[in-house]
């Protein structure tokens, strides 16, 4: 009588993947929660760092986990989402998910940058306002906003406290948007943007470039950088 076929042993990395999935499926590790570090897992399973790294790398590629540079590895949820059909305040977008928005002000200045003046169709020698803000969903950075603003429409722009009021909220109050043009592209961030958004080297951004009009004039020209692995755009007509 032939001997029964012995099942092949399950590789160690696959066992770790199965363990992580069970922890998540059973609710032991919740969406957004940081999981144990590679060092903690290799001690728990008595395997090599390479084995643990492979398991976590594959789970990240399968969007079960998400890595944030300098912070650790977290249980992934749905991607952060923004709508294209309607320009909404990012603070409202985040609040609609039951999350907390906060903003870090990186730059507020006057500028005579030629490209900015051309984008806003202002005369050379005029000034434009320039802001650079970093928006967070809970404590995760999801948008780096680089904005040029027409001071003839929003003369008090630089006086606003954008830690508590978003540019969208201020401009909607002062001179509501009449129309917009936008372009979405995938781009590699420079080192500064990558650091601000806590992205791994080689990860791309989803970049939204948008101009808006108010009172028949170009109001603002903005570039919005989003981590491609943690963000998506959606809409319906």
Key phrases:
237 residues; Arc Repressor Mutant, subunit A; elongated; DNA-binding; transcription; transcription regulation
The span between the termini is 67 Å
Classified in CATH, the superfamily of the largest domain is: Chorismate lyase-like
Query: What's the domain count?
Result: 2
**Strand-residue proportion:** 25-35%
CATH architecture identity of the largest domain: 3-Layer(aba) Sandwich
* Low-pLDDT segments, ≥5 res: none
Number of helices: 7
Which radius of gyration do the C-alpha atoms yield? 23 Å
Order of the strands making up the biggest sheet: 4-5-6-9-8-7
Number of strands: 10
Helix content: 25-40%
Shape assignment: elongated
Largest sheet: 6 strands, antiparallel
Structural class: alpha+beta
List the topology elements:
Elements lengths: L11 H14 L12 H8 L3 H13 L3 E4 L3 E4 L4 E4 L6 H6 L5 E11 L2 H6 L8 E10 L2 E10 L17 H8 L4 E9 L3 H6 L8 E10 L2 E11 L3 E4 L3
Parallel strand pairs: 3-10
Antiparallel strand pairs: 1-2, 4-5, 5-6, 6-9, 7-8, 8-9
Keywords: DNA-binding, Transcription, Transcription regulation
GO molecular function: DNA binding; DNA-binding transcription factor activity
InterPro entries: Bact_HTH_transcr_reg (IPR050679), Chorismate_lyase_/UTRA_dom_sf (IPR028978), His_ut_repres (IPR010248), Tscrpt_reg_HTH_GntR (IPR000524), UTRA (IPR011663), WH-like_DNA-bd_sf (IPR036388), WH_DNA-bd_sf (IPR036390)
